[in-house]
Specification:
Largest sheet of chain A: 8 strands, mixed
Order of helices and strands of chain B: EHEHEHEHEHEHEHEEHEEHEEHEHEH
CATH architecture of chain A: 3-Layer(aba) Sandwich
CATH class of the largest domain in chain B: Alpha Beta
CATH class of chain A: Alpha Beta
CATH architecture of the largest domain in chain B: 3-Layer(aba) Sandwich
Oligomer: heterodimer
Strand content of chain B: 15-25%
Distance between the termini of chain A: 65 Å
Number of strands of chain A: 10
CATH topology of the largest domain in chain B: Rossmann fold
Number of domains of chain B: 2
Distance between the termini of chain B: 50 Å
Number of domains of chain A: 1
Shape of chain A: globular
Order of helices and strands of chain A: HHEHEHEHHEEEHEHEHHEHEH
Strand order of the largest sheet of chain A: 2-1-3-4-8-7-10-9
Largest sheet of chain B: 7 strands, mixed
Strand order of the largest sheet of chain B: 3-2-4-5-7-6-13
Amino acid sequence: MATAVKQKSDVILQYLRPSKKMPSVWCAGCGDGIIMSAIIRAIDKLGYSKDEVVMVSGIGCSSRMPIYLDFNALHTTHGRALAFATGVKFARPELKVIVITGDGDALAIGGNHFIHACRRNIDITAILINNSIYGMTGGQGSPTTPSNAFSTTTPYGNVEKHFEPCELAKAAGASYVGRSTVYHATQMEKMIIEGLEHRGFSLIEVVSNCQTYFGRLNRQGDAVAMIKSFKERAVMLGKAKKMTEQELEGKIVIGTIHRADKTEFCDEYQRVVDSLKGGK
Amino acid sequence: MAEKKRVLMLGNQACVQGAIYAGMRFFAGYPITPSTEIAEGCSRELPKIGGRFVQMEDEIGSIAAVIGASIAGLKAMTATSGPGYSLMVENIGYAYMTETPCVIVNVQRGGPSTGLPTKISQSDTMQARWGPHGDFTAITVAPSTIGDIVIETIRAFNLAERFRTPVTILLDEVMGHMREIITLPEPGEVELVDRVRPTCSPEEFVPFEKTPNLVSPMPRYGDGYRYIVTGLTHDTMGFTTNKPAEIAPKLDKLKHKIEDYVDEITKLRVEKIDDAEIAFISYGSVSRAAFQAIDIARKAGVKVGGVQLDTIWPFPEKELVDLCSRCKRVIVAELNMGQIVNEVRRVLPPDIVVDSLLRYDGEILTPLQLLEKLEEVL
């Protein structure tokens, strides 16, 4: 048992940037570490070289991830990660481009880039870490803060409705869409592998915990209590299809929600380039 | 040698030709009058040479994609007008901070706000210098003929690559939409500059190292140098920092890598300045009227000359002081409410009278208006 644990952590350590910048900015118990581990295991299993991986992020707690990992790291401006990533991928399509983004980063300030990256179906794997709150700035309401939930900018309960990121991505044209939680680390890892192997835009929403702000303001307990609640609230997609809307109230539907066979943006552009060369 | 082919060309098309000559292989943009022909030209020409064009969802995404492509190794450009430039400035600041070479064309129209989409203006001159928040040194060029647009666009790419910095090309509605007969440079005729790439091993690589000329070698993503690019203030390794001992050196680097080499950047055109008592100072399309006015006034015996600023930023203060040293008076002519005139006032000695001729009603300054101004001050 001890050996197995050691081997697992060895894999993680191989992919951390060999440097002075630890500890991370993340609070103890934050889901970001679980997600980072799942990403590392996925990349390790796929056998990608560190050199071919580009990790792009915007602004927020989770967007610090590229700085900790030993890949090509692009830590950009708030909400713009997918637009920067589009430039990187289109310029060098052979690179594996992963975008790390949060609910505020991807869906509020970056909402326009989000739907258009989905529409283009460019071969980028976006991991949207959804903790329903702005953590880095201290617990303000986000586009995924549920109605009536408390945050530092919804002190009387949220009067707004929330986004469903997976539904949004599917409607906008993403060709792989999945949802998991930080409790379901193995499923999440499998989904990241599928997303990376999928040719086209992949969105993986990972429901995560911010016990520091969301948990405290909404009396959901500590990190362990929040992560346990994800286990209790999670329903596999197959089962969810047989449930009524009322039965699904408060549940988190997990699994591969959407997968479509569509042409990819860089491939289609290359087809035009090749046809013009052929025409001369 | 065969005679060079002469072509009738639109200003915005000349910009595309210059960019492709310079090695641009990536363009991302968003439609906006009066710059759109640049995007259209790139969408048509780039796939023919294996380059890449993408129409992004907005100007914020356009400059972001351009920066991403440049970090991945391609020479990249975007083109816009005032409202689009306003949207881009946050990420232009990111390019200054991350020292990413790229070219931004602003085909100016009247402002503020949506302003005058189809009318000329030079009112973004200060925005090109001070658009993004924070301290940095900007490079901006402003051609005044269609032939110059080709040359200045090539120069903008060369400067961006040489200094690892964004460069703004200021055109205006008239420059963008005017046609002139020009001769395109032959391959090899104009020198091209490519960014310096690291030659050390990845293990020895210091991404933002303070080299003798302050410009750090820049690798492509994917070539083994797995470094951090961040808009947060960073140390020489690219790690974010809050240490005073690391913050000021980073900002000093951004300033001095350009300002200590300003001689490589400054470019002026002078007309009959040697014995001039009065000089017109102009840039962009106004220079055309200024040179014609000088020609006419000289025939009438007036000792007038002119200086055209091809490089606007960094402001060519040393050269301007030298060139105008014998003048009693200068007249700064520009299509705004007074932007460069204040720079001229700042740099010239107090015994030279600095006058201005400003127009900001969406129309051009004519040679006649410049002559009238001359008459008024004589």
